[in-house]
TrEMBL record:
Keywords on record: Leucine-rich repeat, Repeat, Signal
Superkingdom of source: Eukaryota
Pfam families noted in UniProt: LRR_8
Keyword Signal tagged: yes
Transmembrane segments: none
GO cellular component: extracellular matrix; extracellular space
SUPFAM superfamilies per UniProt: L domain-like
Signal peptide start and end residues: 1-17
Protein's UniProt keywords contain Cell membrane: no
PROSITE patterns given in the database record: LRR
Record protein name field: Tsukushin
């Protein structure tokens, strides 16, 4: 029994030793096993806040899947800083809080399996159009940088045909655009909140399902503001403190939209029935914290799929069926659909 225990402890020690093999002294390396009988493993490497004298690339184990290089004051990202052994197997890479001002065109070119990239909290103002070329990216965080303009075509060169989620929140964006030129941009989720956008950007043709425009200085949403965005399911336009008007047919073309968040827009006082034109799939409408206190009486006609509406501070309305009277000529009971609210006296 003692021999078996000794052998077990020796084996465990060997596994632990292999976990830190080729691990930089300033990093923490950990092997995670999973699958039946731990038949698969991946290596996580944490190299946050290394010594300022540390040179790049930092040596890491050859089979590293997840690497955290955040908070290292890297500065401009050159072609060689991520080109060492072990980098080619990376699935996720955290480069946040590194004072990165530029990314060279080939800085990421060796990371052919990279799916998740965090470049948030840096000082980026632009990206080379081919910097993501050949990468199977699924999630890119570019929030908290200094972008003023952004060309979505930077994602045209990614591979594998899988959709990507992009976070561009908390930048200085005044313009976001795409030219496409026959290319397909598989951007599925786009967060543009907390920027300097004064109007809804032109994103026509993107296969977006989620779009966030919260906390931008938009004052007016014009007719046809969301053209060719037929796949959007969730749209958030919340916290626009200067938004005063939404024109009729502004949301026309959003036939797949299920959730519309218009909350916390205090200067938005009224909405005409035509504002909701074309929103045949809308199920949830949030107007809480806005200046809108009532809605058109025929709202259920304009929104045939609506299930709930939120108004004011704490007013919630749900679609229900009202039992009707027996119709003698038709020989059946008629049901009328109505909105029931948790606060009496709400005008709908």
């Amino acid at each position: 029994m003692a021999l078996l225990l000794w052998l077990g402890l020796s084996l465990l020690a060997a596994v632990q030793a292999s976990a830190v093999k080729n691990c930089h002294p300033g990093c923490h390396c950990e092997v995670e096993s999973f699958g039946l009988f731990d038949s698969f493993s991946l290596t996580r490497v944490d190299c946050r806040e290394l010594s300022p004298s540390t040179s790049m690339p930092v040596p890491i184990p050859l089979d590293t899947a997840h690497l955290d290089l955040s908070s290292n004051t890297m500065g401009p990202l050159s072609d060689t800083m991520l080109a060492g052994p072990g980098y080619t197997t990376l699935v996720s890479l955290d480069l946040s809080n590194n004072h990165i001002t530029k990314v060279s065109p080939n800085a990421l070119s060796k990371l052919r399996y990279l799916e998740t990239l965090d470049l948030s909290h840096n000082s980026l103002q632009s990206l080379p159009l081919n910097c993501f070329s050949g990468l199977p990216l699924a999630e890119v965080d570019l929030s908290h940088n200094s972008f003023q303009e952004f060309d979505m075509d930077v994602f045209a060169a990614k591979v594998n045909g899988e959709p990507v989620s992009v976070d561009l929140s908390y930048n200085k964006l005044v313009s976001v655009f795409t030219t496409l030129h026959g290319r397909v941009l598989l951007v599925q989720s786009l967060n543009l909140s907390a920027n300097q956008l004064q109007s809804v950007p032109s994103l026509a043709g993107l296969p977006l399902r989620y779009l966030n425009l919260d906390f931008n200085p938009i004052t007016h949403i014009k007719e046809g503001a969301f053209p060719q965005l037929k796949d959007v399911v969730y749209l958030s336009i919340s916290g626009l403190h200067e938004l005063q008007q939404i024109e009729p047919n502004s949301f026309k073309g959003l036939q797949s939209l299920q959730v519309l968040d218009l909350s916390n827009n205090p200067k938005l006082k009224s909405l005409s029935p035509a504002v909701f034109s074309g929103l045949d799939s809308l199920q949830e409408l949030n107007l809480s914290g806005s200046g809108v206190a009532s809605l058109p009486t025929n709202i259920l006609t304009d929104l045939p799929s609506i299930k709930s509406i939120t108004l004011g501070q704490n007013t919630h309305c749900w679609r229900t069926q009202k039992q009707g009277q027996f119709h003698r000529q038709m020989g059946q009971v008629q049901h009328n659909e109505v909105l029931n609210c948790n606060v009496e006296g709400v005008v709908l």
